[in-house]
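Possible race condition, two jobs.
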Amino acid sequence: MRYARALLKSAQAQKCEDAVYQDMTLLGEAYLKVPQLREAIDNPMLSASDKTKLLTTAMGDKPSPLSQEFVKLVIKEDRESIMQLMAASYVTLYRKDKNIIRGRLITAVPVSDATKARMQKMVETKTQGTVEFESETDESIVGGFILEYDTYRLDCSVKSKLNSILKRLS
């Protein structure tokens, strides 16, 4: 957490916290999507320069100079084994600082952009913050929707209603 706090303060001082946020978000996603990344970074046989290249590549096409310097510092200090945690901590600190909440809408069928925008606006009104909103389809919910944001979950799916009726009948 110390490294993430220091990175956020440095990014704010250099007015590049948004770019670093994008870099750390991409890096965190890379760790989740490519489990071999952790194995490679934890490999003591891999050189520091190769680890640096690997991590900067995982941050996308053009990582910010501060993100690149941060990776070099982490590797120099032999802390690369917790880089995923540092990236996730930076994302969390950034979101808290900017009052950004993650929201997710799950539906049985794809919904229009207007519907997504209405749901996002509703969540933003309730939370008094900005919402990073994503939507996905899951046919197993049969119909209706599930809305998740912050620590809340509103389940208006047909599947949950049917399960509720089944429990009452049992």
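Job #2 (started ~2 s after job #1):
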Amino acid sequence: MNQRAMLFGFAAIMLLVCAGCGDSPVRFGADPAVLPPSEIADFNVLYSNNCAGCHGQVGKGGAAIALSDPVFLAIADDATIRRIAANGVPGTPMPAFVQSAGGMLTDRQVDLLVQGIRSWAKSSAVEQNALPPYASRANGDRQRGADVYRTYCSSCHGADGSGGKAGSIVDGSYLALVSDQDLRLNVILGRPAAGAPDWRGDLPGRPMSEQEISDVVAWLGAQRPAIAGQPYPKSAMGGVR
């Protein structure tokens, strides 16, 4: 076969191949099985992608409170959970998630998160009439709060809050990242997974009263630095000036 015949044969084969391309099963482009982020409507996916990093898988807690804690779900109503999920908490690591506040989720997706979190509630887990309210109904007094701290908290966190059997709760960097409401929830809920008792367990048989919770939060808030962080001492800076 001469060179011209070979070229004609190759061209014929290519024509046949191209003619069949329209029926090829291979397609490049958008996969209809992949949903745009704004159309995801699965609670588990939404929670895992947006909440689990701080609140733990299935709401068990982590860097932030356990959203599946029965006490939290008993004292926080749907409107509260939605407001925080949608708008975040300014001045803390909790971001806004709804698009209208600069987040990535639609209103419907925020509603799905609230419904899914609420589904973890167990109505019989706590006695409603024994619960402190989610938000303080009276101003706390930091002077009384110092006494409350010594009574309920100092055995673990040290006489001045700087640490003992448990870590410091007056560290400036920590207090700069949490709101007074965060402090209140930490006092009420504790961290059971880490061995930190809730408001009922610091002194067996003597739960903290609503006013005592508000007072100790006022005392903790008073330890918050005006400017976050702490300068390095000169001895640690060496020759740097």
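The chain has a mean pLDDT of 85.
Logs attached separately.
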